[in-house]
Amino acid sequence: MISLTDFLLVSAALFCIGLYMIVSKHNAIQILIGIELMLNAANLNLVAFGKYDKLNNGGQMFALFAIVLAAATTAVALAIILNVYKKYKTIDPDRIDKLRD
Amino acid sequence: MSLVQALFYLMSFIALASAVFVAATKNLVRSVFMFFITLFALAGLYVLALADFVAITQIVIYVGGILVLILFAFMLSGKETLNVIAQQRRQFISLSKLPAILLAVLFLIVLINMIFKVDADHLGWISQSIQTKNVIEPEAATTENIGVNLMTGYLLPFEAVSILLMVALVGAAHLSRKEAQQ
C-alpha cells in the first residue's frame, strides 16, 4: 500500500508551488489559482489521513467542506477582481496602490 | 511494485509536473487549462487514498464549477485582460523571481524535514486505528457512511456552510452588478 509519507511529500510540493505562485505572479487570477493549489494540497493531506478514520470520516468530511468553501471564495474573489479591473484597468496587484476614489 | 503504487507515482508525477507548468508559464489561458489536469490528477490521488466521494466532488465542483468560473471571468471581461497579461515586461526570469523561488524551496525543505521527523505512518492514533480495524478497506463503500455522518455528527457545520454559500452568492451578485446611472 501507499504510505502516508508519500502523500505528505506530494502535498508539500504542491503547497510550495502554490506559495511560489502567490508570491511571484503579477496577475490576480494566477494568484487565485495559487491559492487553489494550496487548498488542494491541504485537502490531499486531510483525505490521506481520513483513511484511518472509518467510523467518523473526519478527514473526508473536512475535505468536502474545504472544497465547498473554496468554491464560495473563488466566486467572491472573481467578482472583486472584475470590479478592480473596471476601476483600475489592470489586475496586477502591485499597481493597485490607491485607497481613495 | 504493485499496480496501485505505480498508479500513485504516475498520478503524483502528472499533478506535480502540471502544477510546475501552471506556475512557470506566462500565458494565463495555458495555465488555467493545465490547472484542469492538475485537478484531475489530484482527483485520481484521492481515489488512491480510498476517498471516492471526495474525488467525485473534486471533479464536479473544482473542474465543473471553479475553473469554468475562472474561464468565464476573463473571457467575459474582454480582450483587455488578456492583453494586460501579454504586455508584461520580459525580463531575465530567474533574477526577478529569485526571492520567490528561494522562499518556496526553503519552505519545501522545512516541510520535508518535518515530514520525515513526524514519521506519519507510526503515529499513535494511526497504529491504534489499525489495531481496532478502523481503517477504510479498498473494497468498502464509504459514500453511505459519509451521508449518515453528514446528517448526524456534522449537521451544524453542514448548515453553516449552506448559509455561507447563500451569503457568498448574494455578495458575488452584489459586487458584480452594474452601477446605477447617477
Report on this model:
The complex is a heterodimer of chains A (101) and B (182). Chain A is built from three helices and no strands. Chain A has 101 residues and is mainly α. Chain A has one domain: Orthogonal Bundle (Helix Hairpins). The longest helix of chain A is centred in the last third of the chain and has 31 residues. Chain A is elongated. The model of chain A has no long low-confidence stretch (mean pLDDT 88). Chain B is mainly alpha-helical. Chain B has a domain of 88 residues: Up-down Bundle (Four Helix Bundle (Hemerythrin (Met), subunit A)). Chain B is globular, with a radius of gyration of 22 Å. The N and C termini of chain B lie far apart (69 Å). Classes of the chains: A mainly alpha (101), B mainly alpha (182). The interface between A and B is large, with 72 and 84 residues.
In a nutshell, what does this entry contain?
The complex is a heterodimer of chains A (101) and B (182). By secondary structure, chain A is an all-alpha fold.
CATH superfamily of the domain at 1-88 in chain B: NADH-ubiquinone/plastoquinone oxidoreductase chain 6, subunit NuoJ
Please name the CATH topology of the domain at 1-88 in chain B: Four Helix Bundle (Hemerythrin (Met), subunit A)
Shape of chain B: globular
Total number of helices of chain B:
9
CATH class of the domain at 1-88 in chain B: Mainly Alpha
Query: Helicity level of chain A, as a percent range?
Result: over 70%
Pfam families (chain A): Oxidored_q2
GO biological process, one term (chain A): ATP synthesis coupled electron transport
Main location (chain A): membrane
InterPro entries (chain A): NADH_UbQ_OxRdtase_chain4L/K (IPR001133), NUOK/Mnh_C1-like (IPR039428)
